[in-house]
């Protein structure tokens, strides 16, 4: 080990003492800055990642909408020929009244094609009860919140009344309400989707809304490594001219919310980054004080044959060591915190009475967390770089000292 690196360690961790006050304060500052950056980036990225996954898992990477589709099979054939498309499924949405044991609900209803929906929308992954294999024209799958509000469970009989029923009544015609059996209960982890959505077969939806053989849209699943924007463009180019149908990516569907999260994430990161800047100034100030206190020692190093840069490295490495130790602690504790962020957030929110408000704003029943290796690498490079820069300032000051003048210093 080079003598100047050994000396840097000895000054930070002197014999007989665990660490100096300077080491403790500086390392703690770097640790807190990195810890907060890990948590903030992890949580804010988690909201964006979870929201994106929710859009994809409920509608595929691409949704074709814009006009009533009289022949969805023909549109599917066109879409499936586009390179990169894995599967597609027709869909139709609307609003109905659903009733069970005198308890009414007014959910959104989605009609799906059982033979192809699982290839695009993995509903089975989110089922709490029941099975998608039981979804037929006489069955319905309910969201967890809707099932709880009308006291229904798997096997319950529910009555569904569509706007078409009311329209027929206004025309002095009569249309019997539809009785369906609950085949499953799902929970996506998103307040709106879990509160008031029912899923039926596309044929049942066509009967409820009088759609004939048509649908309102087609959801598309693409290959994992495919360019979603390029495929959406190719789909738009392949659709029949004048059809008024347009393919939109999942990012375009949730553009407003994702943009708001991006701005919020950026602003919070900038604010928290100030902590690392403050710590860097603190490290610089303390190392400059150390240089001033050890002026005669620096002069002695020079008299013994040390070059100016070797004397400087003694102080530069102190900044590096503080940065590495603080960053390692910050990343370790930060990742541990992210792994338990939901129970921690629930505890804090319930102590302050703001959990329901948090769910209402972000609409997620669990606090998500997601951080990539690239995010961690950037945080580490930033924190260690700032600490190294702080050490370089003191090192530059030490390198400028001339041995003879330094040894005369009082």
UniProtKB/TrEMBL annotation:
It is a multi-pass membrane protein. GO terms for cellular component: plasma membrane protein complex. InterPro entries: ABC3_permease_C, Lipoprotein-release_system, MacB_PCD. Its main location: membrane. Keywords: Cell membrane, Membrane, Transmembrane, Transmembrane helix. Residues 23-237 form the MacB-like periplasmic core domain. It is found in: Cell membrane. Residues 270-403 form the ABC3 transporter permease C-terminal domain. The chain crosses the membrane at residues 20-44, 266-289, 309-338, 376-399. One of its GO terms (biological process) is lipoprotein localization to outer membrane. Belongs to the ABC-4 integral membrane protein family. LolC/E subfamily. PANTHER family: LIPOPROTEIN-RELEASING SYSTEM TRANSMEMBRANE PROTEIN LOLE (PTHR30489:SF0). This is ABC transporter permease. It comes from Ereboglobus luteus.
